[in-house]
Design goal:
Blueprint lengths: L4 E7 L5 E7 L3 H14 L13 H10 L2 E7 L2 E2 L5 E7 L9 E6 L1
Antiparallel strand pairs: 1-3, 1-6, 2-5, 3-4
Length: 104
């Protein structure tokens, strides 16, 4: 079934990865985001979480695990420069991304 108008929901069922909708034209935007997140939530801070990946949990919480994108005329209605990114904060690891599309 092809959906012409509706919503595409993208979800990552992981606590140390997130989804980001942001600029996809200039790779420096992604590098800047990673750099700033690393400054805000450094890997080697005094965290209590014994697994050693508390920074990844915090970053994933900051960016979120889902995005909802409108579908118009059979296409994702992203902005001209936008893309959808899986942000892996504790890897590399194999990840699952669930996508569901609901028609109007």
């Amino acid at each position: 079934m092809h959906v012409y108008d509706g919503v595409c929901h993208v979800y990552s069922p992981h606590t140390t990865a997130g989804l980001i909708v942001n600029e996809n034209a200039d790779p420096d935007v992604c590098a800047d985001m990673i750099s700033r997140l690393d400054e805000l939530v450094p890997v080697n801070a005094a965290y209590r979480h014994a697994e050693g990946n508390a920074h990844a949990h915090i970053k994933a919480s900051l960016v979120g695990q889902s995005a909802a994108i409108p579908v118009e005329n059979g296409r994702l209605a992203l902005g001209r420069w936008q893309g959808i990114f899986l942000a892996e904060f504790d890897g590399p690891r194999e990840r699952t991304v669930l996508v569901s599309v609901v028609a109007e």
